[in-house]
Structure formats: structure tokens, C-alpha cells
Amino acid sequence: MKSPEEIVNQLMMKNDAFSQWLGIQVLEIKHGYCKLQMQVRKEMLNGFHIAHGGITYSLADSALAFASNSHGYKAVSVETSISHTEALKEGDIIRAEAEELHRSNKIGVYQVNIYTMPDKKIVALFKGTVYITSQLW
Amino acid sequence: MKSPEEIVNQLMMKNDAFSQWLGIQVLEIKHGYCKLQMQVRKEMLNGFHIAHGGITYSLADSALAFASNSHGYKAVSVETSISHTEALKEGDIIRAEAEELHRSNKIGVYQVNIYTMPDKKIVALFKGTVYITSQLW
Amino acid sequence: MKSPEEIVNQLMMKNDAFSQWLGIQVLEIKHGYCKLQMQVRKEMLNGFHIAHGGITYSLADSALAFASNSHGYKAVSVETSISHTEALKEGDIIRAEAEELHRSNKIGVYQVNIYTMPDKKIVALFKGTVYITSQLW
Amino acid sequence: MKSPEEIVNQLMMKNDAFSQWLGIQVLEIKHGYCKLQMQVRKEMLNGFHIAHGGITYSLADSALAFASNSHGYKAVSVETSISHTEALKEGDIIRAEAEELHRSNKIGVYQVNIYTMPDKKIVALFKGTVYITSQLW
Predict the structure, then answer these.
(1) What is the mean pLDDT of residues B102-109?
(2) Strand order in C93-103's β-sheet?
(3) How many domains does chain C have?
(4) What ipTM is given for this predicted complex?
């Protein structure tokens, strides 16, 4: 069975264009867990000069994909929810930390917290549910 | 009180960089409702050559913002959820249609369906809850 | 394959104690759809003399179970969400109407609206996602 | 300003009929936090002889109400979601522990974990968002 690092390398392979556009870096990956980082750029802002809600969602959704696929079986998102609790501005560095709340044979549930660095202020709370297939990576 | 069109113009003003990057077009806007369209580009794909989940979320979140602000009072998202039901590939044209399910003095609930064009196949189901402030646009 | 009516009969069989306590009646059932009704009783109220949020959730959750199992395969709930939009008082008659928004091989998504009778005022909006097993009823 | 205990006493006053029917006990309450306990009874089971999803939702929803009102201002639920991760049978003792993930002037977000006792196995994961009014208890 492939390691979490090998799987994320495959998921983040050269042609993962959107994660590259976002500038996502993988800081840590292990079974059921990952920590990602990125920086808010000017192109990610909305008309209020704060990050569009889709930016933090995208980072959290990538974290969900990495954490839920890390066990070696392909997993697909079935339902995700996010609360945006603080606004982000250009230059802010944010981290997503995904943690496995539950994993059965078929279903996994993950909590992803997004916070700023270095002050670790929570800016978004994300929960994701995945369906775990029987296909190996 | 400003019209829905005037409010969306303000929301989508020249400096709304991320909506411009996404290529979002406003097809229709009225009180509590809007219809948006965009096309999936190569930069929006993940490592599987399908659109990243953050792309449809971003479109839906913009539709939520437009529909919930259209009554003239500033509204802020408090909780959103999305189910991705079908994969999207480069070149696909998608629409988001936001509908008001409930609106009280302080809280609004919106359903946003995302579907492909011209075949109108549902690709994502989004629900958003907003807090309605007393600030006029 | 069993009919939707036969499946609901099995789900609602004599020993479904909680649905009986709630007083749930099945008004209509077909593939991917059902309509249920019940009346708010004194024992269902909280300290504010309005129905506890768990009452409308329970009705909606039963509607999800009936609608998602109606195709003949056993389905289990994986994630549900509800917004309570209006308060209910003793004696109110409420209906739950479940509609299938999406159904693939493995995953189904259902919208359940709860409204009062006879004025059809929406009191709760529920969305449920199920995992569809390969086990026949 | 009233203490968390005084507020819960008011919320759980003699006429909170449904919490009494459920048999909810308050084990601990402080600002933004509470711990509740109850036991699954025969009347709470569905046709599969496991607890109806509405039972754990009801316990979690009560925990949300207590934790979010504990600061002294009246708070109302705007959106809640729950994943049922394990089945419960007659006689099982369950606890709900509510924790405040975020609280601004107007909006609060709470995580409620439901687990069995004494083995602390997670059976349901609940997230609730409330609107905080300016009304004092």
C-alpha cells in the first residue's frame, strides 16, 4: 500500500493546476491528517478587498482530499460545509489542518480548521464527509 | 433603496479580482434570486483533470452573495454547505441559480443549484445561510 | 424488488416505537419521494412552549429514510442538516415532503421541506445525504 | 448578568416537557460549554431496534441551546448538521459535550460530540450555528 506522501504526490502531481494557482504547500501529511499552507494574493480578493469565500473553501477541500485519501484507498467527497468566521486580506498566510473525526469501512468524517499564521486565529471551520471506495491508490 | 442590479454592480465592481479570474457573468438578478454563468478553464482543474471542488463552491458562494444582498441590506454568509454530484471537465459551461428559501428579519436561507449548459445536468447542490445586517447598500 | 409501500411498511412496522410516539402518518410514498404528517403535542414542547428542534428533525429524518429506501436498496444516512425557520406550538399540524435531488450508484441527496397545514408555511428546511448499500429490502 | 446555571435552570424549567421525556441530565455547564447525559429507552427505538436519529439530534440540539445561551444573551439556532456514525441500542448511556468553536458579536459556532459511556465511543458529530440577540436572560 502506498504511503500518505506518495498519494499526495500523485494528487498534487505536476498537472494539478488549481492547487498550483492557489500556491498550496504541503507542510505535513500522515494517515488521516494533513497540514497545508498558502498565502492570500491580490487575485483572490473580492470587491471588498477581502479573500473570496471560495479561497478558504478550496484550501479546506484540498486538505480533505489529502487526509481522506492518505490511508491508501480512493475517497470521494460527498458533502462539505464551511463557516467563514473572519475576513482575510492580501498577504495573510493561512494554514489548513485536517483531522479525522470518524472513519468506518465506507464513510469518513473530517474537521478542517483554517487559521492565520503566526497568530493562529481561526478564520474558517470546515467539515467534510467522504465515501471510501475499495480502489487502491 | 438601491436596485438588485446596482448592488451587484457594486459587489462585482472593477476590483473584484477573483470573480474576474473565474470569468463569472451575471445573466439575471432580481430580489432574492440570481443566475450566473462561467466556463471551466484549464487552470481550474485538479490532478484528475476535473474541476477542483473549490470552483463550483466559489460560483455558488458568489450567487449566494448576490441573491442575499439584492434586497438592499448588507448580508454576510454564516454557514454554507455543498454536495458535488458530478465531475466537470475543461470547457464545460456551468450556471448557478440561487433561490430564496426563507428570509426573516435577520436570517436568510438560499438554495443554489449548479448545472451544466445546455443540458442542465445538476453538478452541485449548495445551501447557504446569511445574517442580514441593518446596513443599507 | 419490493414496492415503496412494502418497504415503508417494514420500516414502520409495529415495533417502530419512536415514530409511533411522534404519531407519524404516511400520506404518500413513491420512488424517491414521500409525504408524512404529524401533530405537535404538549410532550414535544420545550421550556418556551414551542416544539423542540428535535421534533421537526425527527420527522424530516424519517422522511429521508422512507424516500431514500424506497427504490428497494437499503440506504443509511451519512450527513443531515436542518434550519429551523419558524416556531411551532401545541396542536400545529406539520407535513414533511421529501424529494430526491440526486441519486447515483452509491450516494443520494434529498431535500425535505417541513410546513404547517393547512397554510403551508415553511417551518424547517432539511437536507440529507445517504449511502446506498447493495442490500435489497 | 445571570450565571450559566441560572440560565439553564430557566431553559430546563419544570415545563420543558420534551427534555424531561428524553430524561436529559445536566452534568456540567459553564460559559460556552455544557455536558449532558441521557439513556436510550425502548420508546426511542426505530423499526431496526436502534435509536432513531432524532434522539441524538435532540440531545445535541439541547446541548447547543445551553452552551450558546450560557453567556447571558438569548441565542437562536440558525443551522445545524449532524452525522450519525454508530448505532445505539436500548439501555445505552450517551453524553453530549458542546464546545464553542467561534463566537462573534452576532454569530456563534458550536461543535457537539455525542459519545457512549463509559467507553467514550463517538456515535454522532453535530455542528450548530446560532444568532446571538441583544436580549439578556
Answers:
(1) 94
(2) C25-30, C33-39, C93-103, C107-117, C122-136, C73-84, D73-84, D122-136, D107-117, D93-103, D33-39, D25-30
(3) 1
(4) 0.95
**Burial letters for C37-73: b for 16+ Cβ neighbours within 10 Å, e otherwise?**
bbebbeebbbbeebbbbbbbbbbbbbbbbbbbbbbeb
Structure confidence by residue, pLDDT tens digits, A71-121: 999 999 999 999 999 999 999 999 999 999 999 999 999 999 999 999 999
Residues B25 and D19: their CA atoms lie apart, in Å, by 50
Please give the residue range of the domain that contains residue B18.
4-136
**pLDDT-based confidence at D14, cuts 50/70/90?**
low
- Beta-carbon separation of B131 and D129 below 8 A: no
Say which residue the cell 470573480 belongs to.
B19
Judge whether C87 is closer than 8 Å to chain D, CB to CB.
Answer: no
Paired residues of C75 in beta bridges:
C132
Residue that the C-alpha cell 401545541 belongs to: C90
Asked whether C98 and C112 are in contact (CB, 8 A), the reply is yes
Task: Check if the beta carbon of residue A53 is closer than 8 Å to that of residue A84.
Answer: yes
Q: Would you say D82 and D63 are in contact if contact means Cβ atoms under 8 Å apart?
A: no
D-chain residues near A102 (CB < 8 A): 83, 85, 122, 125
Which residue from D minimizes the CA distance to B81?
A: D81
Q: What is the CATH number of the domain that holds D43?
A: 3.10.129.10
Inter-chain touch A131–C129, beta carbons under 8 Å: no
